[in-house]
Write a structure and sequence with these properties.
Layout lengths: L1 E4 L2 H24 L4 H26 L1 E4 L3 E5 L4 E4 L3 E10 L7 E9 L2 E6 L5 H14 L6 H9 L9
Antiparallel strand pairs: 1-2, 2-3, 3-4, 5-6, 6-7
Length: 162
């Protein structure tokens, strides 16, 4: 069994974004008696920032464990996906700049009524992708062209299922 976590350095910026956003939207509501319309708008944004902060905390508490049997997500939303049940594999790249030089990848796998999404900021992301691809091949799962291209950028060849 191998366990991976989202490192603190990968979530610090998200914590800061959530905190600053919450301060700038929730602060005026708390510190002054603002008009109901302003409270409604700022309150909505404050709720979004608070939700983002909670999701960041949940990701930070999450641990991914790999076993010969499958992949297990431990933390606030635990789930287990068995390799033999894997029937969906998708790898997407999300760019943060127009030149597509900066960004992150997200692996989505599913099977047996379970779904799991893992960001490339997770330590050991390449190991997880490799095992997921191996399981997809064993299970005869087809990958779409974008997934095959993204796997190719990681140096992983993936043939379409027969």
């Amino acid at each position: 069994m191998t366990a991976y976590r989202y490192p603190t350095r990968s979530v610090v910026a998200d914590y800061l974004r959530a905190g600053v956003g919450l301060a700038f939207t929730g602060g005026p509501i708390v510190l002054s008696g603002t008009a109901p319309g302003v409270v409604l708008v700022l309150g909505g944004f404050a709720l979004l920032f608070a939700t983002f902060g909670l999701r960041t905390a949940a990701r930070h508490m999450t641990r991914i464990e790999l076993t010969d049997d499958g992949v297990h997500r431990l933390g606030p939303r635990p789930t287990t996906l068995r390799w033999r049940d894997l029937d969906t594999l998708s790898l997407r790249y999300y760019s943060t700049k127009r030149d597509r030089r900066d960004g992150w990848m997200q692996l989505k796998i599913a099977g047996g009524g379970r779904r799991l999404a893992i960001d490339s900021t997770l330590e050991g992301f390449a190991d997880i992708v490799g095992l997921a691809v191996e399981a997809a091949r064993d299970n005869g799962v087809a990958a779409d062209p974008a997934t095959r291209a993204n796997l190719g950028s990681m140096g992983i060849e993936f043939e379409a299922a027969p």
